[in-house]
């Protein structure tokens, strides 16, 4: 069986999560998120947030995005996203299916800036075009980049001035935070809402939507039920986030994933290969000759990302909370052999 | 802590499911339902189905209903449901949120019949009213009743004649099947689609949508992704159904739930109490004096269902795959004391 | 050719409207409602309204209903309507197609009251059911009844207390107002929004949506464009309402329609026939023997409304701004002959 | 008052249309498109079509686009359009509001080609991206260009091969046809559906949707009613198309608009000015110095289209069925003076 660097959701869950599931299995709990684990997990997460924020658990990222975005936009309003944004590129029209246009901005690195958004807004005509009302960013981005504190603050201030909501897709938030100087409290302070990704950071499933803006969280649970995002056994989501936010496990797993990626990058660089981007998160994009790729494919699974020229391709390698140092080192060794 | 008869999703999962999750935790698998457990589970379920049927796993019942129904209806088409149907009564407008009207029929017992539907169809005018195209039934129903084989066959033949799809909500399918003479193969043969409920029958979460009609399952997975119903770690759903369908565990758990309900009913009858309906499934509706209810509430949790008169109320008691005989007997003992 | 009493939109437009269209035909005007006729018509209508109200012209009633209702509801919110309400009964799921459930209340006469709505609200459970947020009424109703000032004020005060918007479908507003003691200013004062029907009161087409509540009209024109309700040659709508509201033509035509209906009712009563309802608007519902109906059908077109028994049927006769006294008298004469 | 070259819907309707409205005003007709004028108009239009085509009248272009496109796409399917396409650029998210993504292709001239679409299709991934199912083109385009017969046939054959519906937005079809070698019969033969624009070619309002593909027109009228696009007095639309298609008036008016544009272009060229595109339809895009534009603006209204550099701007001048030769000549004279 080949080892996969395809993504960060190839394995199950962190052992501490499984242990908690086992230990609480026979305890009766209320349904639909009214269980004690969910309540305790929310309390724990709120310690990082401002006093009025509310937390809601859902099963996955597309569900988090579509439920939140459709809840806050008026029918004629649209969301602004980088062209590479997950909601535009890889969610099968989930946002449009709720009735809203995504207006896209071309970027070099998957990140939006006040200048880029301002240029876009200049082209918007009233009435005959949708009204942009929400800015969607991902951290880390689909290209492995991340936002620094200064960058997020600048975006936030711009959005405040322009009357735009700011929403951060945190499917890979743990990795994004571990890569730079942003804290969870910073994100809470400088967005209207964001979600904390569990699926890609050690949970069986689950994302925690955090709504900081008190104008936006009222009745949000109705939207969840209506979109099929309110689990009967909500305990399963609450319990996992309870474990993840006890003793900083969530942050630790993000650090681990990045560390393994850095180790991998370092090894690849040592062998003389270039990278498409200079990533500090858990997704890296080395450029290999196609012949090398063919040899690596005998032992590993990973995605091609971009054809550079007839001979070279950038591939995507993803590490995770689970990735072991031994596997990373083995890959570098195999790469060395493949390149001979 | 009070014991809860409120529903059949108060506990976690069957131990065999937890065991399988533990054992496979470190095995890498593809995402989005392309894992080997999902594939094996589908194969196992298909042994009960016709050759062309396809199986799809989603997180919950509302999600199953909205994803399937919105996938098969044209924009101007509607779904017919009993007034008590879960999609009409308790899913926060999830179907309407996908753009479709639910046309309701009043029933005595939560069950639709060819005669009831025929009367409804007589009132439908073309063009200015929606066109009914799908009949939604639940088995067991929200009132604890279930369909016999004859009843389902009659509905199916009627729907075939009238060019209506027939869809069965199987949130409590295990209990519904255990109560009567229907088999899973019968359901597969006499519906266009149905779903097999895991959440209420021993899984942590998960429902298996079965689409028997080859005209309806093409590209269904696009709809799942679009509605946020395609889990990244689909393995979690596949694995659970794999366990549930090995050695008939799924059916066994349904039988157990019904048996516990029958034991509970028997004890209550012996004490001289009446019932709102004569249920053979895992939901029973005894009628108690309000004074008795008040005493029971000191030790148990359950829902009031219907006020009979100033002195009496029908309550709902739900047993499950997990309910223990000792608890049932204790309840009957406590009821005896409460009625003194 | 048979004479039709089927509806109030069988003929074209009032001659004054046609004259205005002819006279202004070659004048260049801005598109999309920015023409001078629309602006003058709005000003004229606003003389009846409070200072902050805004007026918007659209092509038809279903369009008015769906554009307004979908603009003010949040995704999980629903609209309350009588079971006989046009939006529920005869608009092909137009409201549901925008994502919203209609919650219905059975009535005797097509009219909602605070008591009826209060009883309905008692049954609404949070989160798992949609949240009613808007009350939809028609004046005159689909059954020919109308609201008195006291009735509307009572509804309005109830809606204010319960945090519900109140919206009046005025497809037949001219007839509704002419029948009772309500004025246009009363309607403006005691609803959040309503529309003034042109199509059924002498226009070629067109309804004027009036939004009294300043919270609701912001950006409404975006919704119009998005729903395909913003006409390029908006002048056609504006000009017609300009004519209708000059010298009270709109009100005069409503009076005429009712007067013709009263004349018709009077004649029918004189001949000894009963009525299904005691209508004072332009729709009347006499009960005739089927033999009489068969004879009338040789010369007239009209709809059967309700089968009373094997021998008798209530029919609907509709008069309009155009109906001539001579035609009414002829019908009564023919009815006399048919009954011999 | 300034003369406007802003668009082709600044005036009312062709005198023959007004005359027909006047003459038929008192004739009773059935509602909702069941009137005799609509039936006769459909018959007349069908003489240009294949035997199975069906014709449906609606009020405007956005309504035509959204009603048709939402009727034929499955929920997860998308429409392909040029980036300049009206549905993407200027309809306030009307298509997205019905739940569908628009996938855009950058073009030089607003026209799609098989090669451009093929390149786009190569980038589409299954399941995680929407499935393109319909190609939307405009003729003439938003940039004044048009499709030749060869170009349309090539597109049609490509769409047939790739299992894509082909839909033509004909808001300016009369001008598009008059510019090249395409006939209405060609359009009918080489698209699945298109619409014939009345609003911009002499009608008060109205577009005729033609559905050539028998798979697509069944029950279409339900979609019209549901979207608020079925006029009660459908006679108004039918009658206008009846007049437009008697004695070729529709085609004649398109020719006139183009002829006036050609005359205008000729005059402008004579004065030495360049054009942004070489348009043969009724929209032309001359490039003028900003100083000239400022002088012209004292007497004329028109839209700026594209800033060429600090000194020059391309403007858009639109002629119509109504434009008089004298006005064109005057403009050229005034341009001459302005350029001195």
Automatic annotation (TrEMBL), chains A, B, C, D:
Signal peptide: none annotated. Its cofactor is pyridoxal 5'-phosphate. Keywords: Aminotransferase, Pyridoxal phosphate, Transferase. The keyword Transferase applies. Residues 17-285 form the Aromatic amino acid beta-eliminating lyase/threonine aldolase domain. Coiled coil: none annotated. It comes from the Bacteria. InterPro entries: ArAA_b-elim_lyase/Thr_aldolase (IPR001597), PyrdxlP-dep_Trfase (IPR015424), PyrdxlP-dep_Trfase_major (IPR015421), PyrdxlP-dep_Trfase_small (IPR015422). GO terms for molecular function: transaminase activity. The keyword Transferase applies. Belongs to the threonine aldolase family. This is Aminotransferase class I/II-fold pyridoxal phosphate-dependent enzyme. It comes from Polluticaenibacter yanchengensis.
């Amino acid at each position: 069986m080949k080892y996969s660097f395809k993504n960060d959701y190839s394995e199950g869950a962190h052992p501490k999560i499984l242990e908690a599931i086992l230990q609480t299995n026979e305890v009766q709990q209320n349904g639909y998120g009214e269980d004690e684990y969910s309540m305790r997990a929310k309390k724990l997460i709120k310690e990082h947030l401002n006093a009025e924020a509310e937390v809601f658990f859902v099963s996955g990222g597309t569900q988090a995005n579509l439920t939140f975005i459709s809840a806050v936009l008026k029918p004629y309003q649209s969301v602004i996203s980088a062209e590479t944004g997950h909601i535009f590129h890889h969610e099968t029209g989930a946002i449009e299916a709720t009735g809203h246009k995504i207006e896209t901005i071309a970027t070099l690195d998957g990140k939006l800036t006040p200048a880029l958004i301002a240029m876009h807004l200049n082209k918007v005509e009233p009435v005959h075009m949708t009204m942009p009302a929400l800015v969607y960013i991902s951290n880390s981005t689909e290209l492995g980049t991340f936002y620094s504190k200064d960058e997020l603050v600048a975006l936030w201030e711009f959005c405040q001035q322009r009357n735009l909501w700011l929403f951060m897709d945190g499917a890979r938030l743990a990795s994004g935070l571990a890569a730079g100087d942003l804290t969870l409290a910073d994100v809470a302070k400088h967005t209207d809402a964001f979600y904390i990704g569990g699926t890609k950071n050690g949970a069986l499933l689950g994302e925690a939507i955090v709504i900081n803006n008190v104008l936006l969280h009222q009745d949000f649970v109705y939207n969840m039920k209506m979109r099929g995002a309110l689990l009967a056994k909500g305990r399963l989501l609450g319990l996992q986030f309870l474990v993840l936010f006890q003793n900083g496990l969530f942050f630790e797993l993000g650090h681990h994933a990045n560390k393994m990626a850095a180790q991998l990058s370092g090894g690849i660089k040592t062998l003389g290969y270039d990278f498409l981007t200079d990533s500090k998160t858990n997704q890296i994009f080395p450029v290999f000759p196609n012949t090398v790729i063919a040899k690596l494919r005998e032992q590993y699974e990973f995605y091609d990302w971009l054809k550079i020229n007839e001979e070279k391709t950038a591939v995507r390698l993803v590490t995770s909370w689970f990735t072991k140092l031994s596997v990373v080192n083995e890959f570098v060794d195999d790469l060395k052999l493949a390149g001979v």
